[in-house]
Amino acid sequence: MLSFILRRLLIIIPMALLVVTVTWGLIRIAPGNFYSSEKKLPAAVEANIQKKYGLDKPWYQQYGIMMLNILKLDFGDSLKYQGQSVNEIIRRHLPYSATVGILAYLLALAIGLTAGIIAALKQNSAFDYGSMALAMLGLSLPNFVLGPILVLAFALGLYILPPARWGGISSLILPVITLAAIYMAYIARLTRAGMLEVMRSDYIRTARAKGLDEKTVLLKHGLRGGIIPVVSFTGPALASLLAGTVVVEKVFAIPGLGNIFIQAVLNRDEPLILGIVAFLSILIMIFNLAVDISYGFLDPRIRYE
Amino acid sequence: MAENVETVKGTSLWKDAWRRLLKNKLAVFGLIVMTIMVVAVIIGPVIIRWTTGFTADYIPSEGDLIKSFPPSAQHPMGTDEAGRDMLARVLQGGRISLMVGVISTIVSLIVGVSYGAIAGYMGGKIDNFMMRLVDIIYAIPYILIVIVLLSVFGGPNTPTFIQTMASTFGGGQALSQIFLLFFALGLVSWLTMARVVRGQILSLKNQEFVMAARATGVSTPNIIFRHLVPNALGPVIVYATLTIPSVMLTEAFLSFLGLGVQAPYASWGSLAADGIKNIAIYPWQLIFPGVTMALTLFSLNFLGDGLRDALDPQTRKF
Description:
- The complex is a heterodimer.
- By secondary structure, chain A is an all-alpha fold.
- Chain A has two domains: 2-71, no CATH class; 93-267, MetI-like (MetI-like fold), CATH 1.10.3720.10.
- Chain A is built from 13 helices and no strands.
- Chain A has helices spanning 2-29, 43-52, 59-71, 86-121, 126-140, 143-157, 170-198, 202-209, 214-226, 228-242, 246-251, 257-267, 270-298.
- The N and C termini of chain A lie close together (6 Å).
- By secondary structure, chain B is an all-alpha fold.
- Chain B has one domain (16-60, 72-315): Orthogonal Bundle (MetI-like fold).
- Helices cover 70% and strands 1% of the residues of chain B.
- In chain B, helix 2 packs across helix 14 and helix 4 crosses helix 8.
- The radius of gyration of chain B is 23 Å and the shape is globular.
């Protein structure tokens, strides 16, 4: 087990470097660069800028220098936000996305799991159909439609919640609900499917046969196997939530990382793009590893060599 | 009694699946809504006689101070900022949005199925390399890939076949950029499809019919595409129906950010994005395109779910 974890942790580094390399290649393939969208500069000034950022060197030297710096976890300064390091920018904007993201996931887990379990236990009941139709609606309602409609109802209609901006718990409610909706729907569906499958398995029959009461069978034996699909979904979902969901940040004017990333892509701000992509890919891989480890605890039949 | 006289008829996998699908009320609901949506979008201009969204009976004059009116008998969905009939705009937008769903999904199908089938059949080092590549592309935010594709192949660099396609639909440069977007979206949505197909091929490739084909000297591409892929079609169709709503959402998201469909063309996403700006004063500008899109995605998701239950008896509801 320990060697499995170590091996997986070690492979994260080359994988992240590969992801950064491919991303760098993509940025370089596209015609133009950060400066091509700005005002045309005198040749001498442009040459100076090229020199300052090392753009006058051949591409393989630029790549080598960049990779060496990245290995030291130094992504350099953003091109757009002069004098601010990429690490600084990520550190400053991540907390906003993380707060909204974690709260949204907790809300999604709480409601999604409960609804999924009840729907599975009362299969084909009105609750089952109702909650699953609601979940489908959650999957189908784009969050840039849901968000503004919530704003319309609760902020502009009822005047009980602020429509946007960051400050206080009340300003978190609408963005968290908007962001949570789709995850809630996924979790409810996954839980229901997982529970239905597990409750029909042999070991549940054994548990019942040995006379355990239904509550123990369900919570101690059923749930552990039943939520495995939810756990696999959690890894990538949490990473994408932490990174911020652009739409919710835009609709509610939250200064999170998602918007910074989109702006960086549009501005061709190479260091910032690479920094955020590297950060995200490492985050995803760590979450996926955590998910793989937790499988072992949830289902004793899964073993890692 | 009638059942007794009926002769025993053989039934194919597809007939069986169709029967199961028709039993699923929600899937039938989805099928009906989608049919209506497609028909409405196609015959829309015949009924409303719009000219870029202005209906024939109302073209605002420069002097009108307010051009956006709430829903009325004349304009069931109201009018937008420029005084264009929202119903006409939503139908126009629906053409683009539904086309995204179809074209991007076909592109992702072609790439994903070929890639997954080749990786799965080749196995070993090739498979390992191909799937690690998929992992890496997964880790790169798709929005970056889409933007790079759009800027590499945009403007004068647009592939000829896309330009030909745009002119077939009666559009010029602007429309060919939209078609380029469709292809770009397809080129970022094939990853999961490749994984699904690879998994299927892995479980199929050691079966006797493949061995028989190989023994009779069928070429490798023929084994992959004529013997293996047709046998993996069930999951592929299911996954494709679920890809349609997801690419439509992605397109809407890009249009929301101002990166997708550009004026004078519209999609549900770009209409909703325009509507959000005026939400406090003209809420119908957001609500109608938003709800139409949600209803479509809702139906497609139900249809996809129904198809999965119908085509894959193992995961069918008990």
